[in-house]
Amino acid sequence: MKSIRLLSAVLTLATASAADPMAPIKPDTYKAPVKVACIGDSITEGVGAEQGRSYPTQLQELLGDKWKVSNFGVSGRTLLKKGDHPYWIEAKYQNALKSEPDVVIIMLGTNDTKPQNWEHEKEFVADYTELVKSFQALPSKPRIYACRPVPVPGEGNFGINEKNLQEWIKRINKLAKDMDIGVIDMHKALERKDEMLPDRVHPNTEGASEMAKAAFEALTGDKAPKPAGAKK
């Protein structure tokens, strides 16, 4: 009887671990390499960082050759379908789906804080939910992470603002919990580091490095080393 109880406890623990959306990803349990799709706007694309130093590129360097990180970011795009430039209609969205990723990192919402997009704020959660489900439906059954977007210092820029971003973060937190998906805190990664957001929206190369480290730690459960080429 004691051995049966022990076996049951082990199985329960294994099931709980497998279901944990923040459990470290083990590349050896995947067909190499683990395919990571980074979904987002200009911040993901790499605007503001030196050429070839976007956060997905630096994340690839940190993860190594057992992983393949692809950048599907498109500048100016919104999560909202009724936003001024919805991500939904982009070829890169379709390419991300076709890539059948093992891991999906979503960071959208920054452009949705603009006044013209905020008019549709009540549709944010429904649209975000649909985006997540579109990846959950893939045969690859990817692990999905929603990002809390990077902070917007001071008055922001381009109509982007921290007040509305904080509302998105509350909704993203709840959505992630309700949908049992992971969360990567890009906001915390750049809090009180305004010098890394020189135009008050886009992280520079060092800011992208901080984002890459946050993603690395969420995916692997390990402390991130300094990406190659980052400032000492």
By DSSP, the count of extended strands is 5
The helix-and-strand class reads: alpha/beta
The description of the largest β-sheet is:
5 strands, parallel
Measured distance between first and last alpha carbons: 58 Å
Number of helices: 9
Describe the global form.
globular
- One letter per element, helices H and strands E, the order comes to HEHHEHEHHEHEHH
As residue ranges, the low-confidence spans are 6-17
C-alpha-based Rg, rounded: 18 Å
- Sheet with the most strands: spatial strand order: 2-1-3-4-5
What amount of the residues lies in strands? 5-15%
Helical content stands at 40-55%
Mean pLDDT: 92
Task: Please give a handful of descriptors for the protein shown.
232 residues; alpha/beta; 5-stranded parallel sheet; 5 strands
Helices and strands, with pairings:
Elements: H1 2-19, E1 34-40, H2 42-45, H3 55-63, E2 67-73, H4 91-98, E3 103-107, H5 115-118, H6 124-136, E4 143-148, H7 162-179, E5 182-185, H8 186-189, H9 205-220
Parallel strand pairs: 1-2, 1-3, 3-4, 4-5
Helix pairs in contact: 3-9, 6-7
